[in-house]
Amino acid sequence: MSPHTIRWGIISTGGIATKFSQDILVDPSTREVTDVAHRITAIGSRSVASAQAFIDKLKAGKAPYDWAVGKGLLDDTKAYGSYEEVYNDPNVDAIYIGTPHTRASRGKHVLCEKPFTLDLDELDELIAIAKEKKLFLMEAVWTRFHPIAYAVQDIIHSGKLGKVKRFSSEFSMDFDPDNRPYSHRMIDPALGGGSLLDMGPYPSVWAMLVLHQHPLNKDRKPPKLHFSHQTLYPRSNVDLNSRWLLEWEGVSQAMLMTDMNTHGPRESTVYISCEEGDLALECECGATPSRGFKDVPLKLGIPAPSPSGRCSSRYLASRVTDTGVNVETHLTRTGGPFKPQRFWLIPHPPGSEKSIKEKTEHHYPVSAGGGMAYEADEVARCVRDGKLESERMPWEESRIVQSWFDQVRRAGGGVLADAKGNAVK
Ligand SMILES: NC(=O)C1=CN([C@@H]2O[C@H](COP(=O)(O)OP(=O)(O)OC[C@H]3O[C@@H](n4cnc5c(N)ncnc54)[C@H](OP(=O)(O)O)[C@@H]3O)[C@@H](O)[C@H]2O)C=CC1
Ligand SMILES: O=C1OC[C@@H](O)[C@H](O)[C@H]1O
User: pTM of this prediction?
Assistant: First the structure.
């Protein structure tokens, strides 16, 4: 049987839209997928030149991103100078939204980058539209679909390590906000700026998968949010950091944290202590230098990469200013739990009554590409099967997480504005 093929329209030509598009051009059989497939039929940008440049960049992709190109699957891809034209293109089945704000789309299935919306009211409006128009809608929380997400759930939910006693999860990374323009999406309240909305979805993924979906939470009761804190960034009053404590009755408490001006732990950003041992999930690193800055080779005296070899915690970036001065800056990049590919099971300290005996390492790599195709496969399957929402990323779970963000922001005072610049309450 031939695979069910989804014809995608991509909204925006930014960083993550590029990664998503590249990933769905990879041969699906490299991730053992034969039942669904993807084509990109339209790109929408605020400028047609940018849309065309995006297509040209995809066409120049190197292995493994050249598979669809080699088959001529980008030959008829349309470049549009507006998002509207993509929504109206009859050759588009589903839209991937890679803008900082959710953009409405008419009559199409939607996969929307996290954070889904600015607040819960906005999310409920989207869900109501999807129900009314019978269209598929999903928040693009790609991590949920990675092999390791299922593996971590299996270990904890099987009870192999006993009950969960303590849970912490975080995403802290130095975005170097002082060196970013106000218009950067992490700074500008009108682009959903701040650490909470951008980074919060990741600690939340793990809390939701491990604790909310824990067999002891039979009725999938949402947790209580006991307290929270935000530190604001004086330049725009978005949150520099957020912390919040949740409790799933009878399952565990969970401490969640985000920071955008400092790094967090370098080796593991999700740590789950259980009765008979702990699970530590590796962190994934990434950060782009401030606009205009370029990575330059590390200099002597800068701390070496982490023992895992994956996280270089400090790096040097430089730029030449308009007046020809070479400015160098040290940036810290430590990541979060967005694409971990291994975890460790760790025994309790000597003398503990019951504990696994030795530390073990467990690998669950994502397939060829960057790891975003799994969520696209889910969309294709759900659309094929006539579903409006995904069981793996259900609306209710997006709603629960969004409601934490609303509560943390309202208590902490972090400022957000909608696309028209009106403050979000
Ligand atoms: N899943 C993941 O791993 C990641 C998800 N994200 C999420 O994706 C979204 C976009 O992030 P990212 O790709 O890094 O952002 P970029 O700034 O790289 O790109 C955003 C794109 O949105 C479009 N856009 C529309 N309106 C505006 C506006 N007012 N200001 C700026 N851009 C606008 C632009 O496309 P155009 O000019 O073509 O119209 C722009 O290129 C965010 O919500 C972020 O949280 C980000 C990184 C990783
Ligand atoms: O989703 C994300 O993951 C990686 C981060 O660099 C980025 O800011 C965030 O949006």
Answer: 0.91
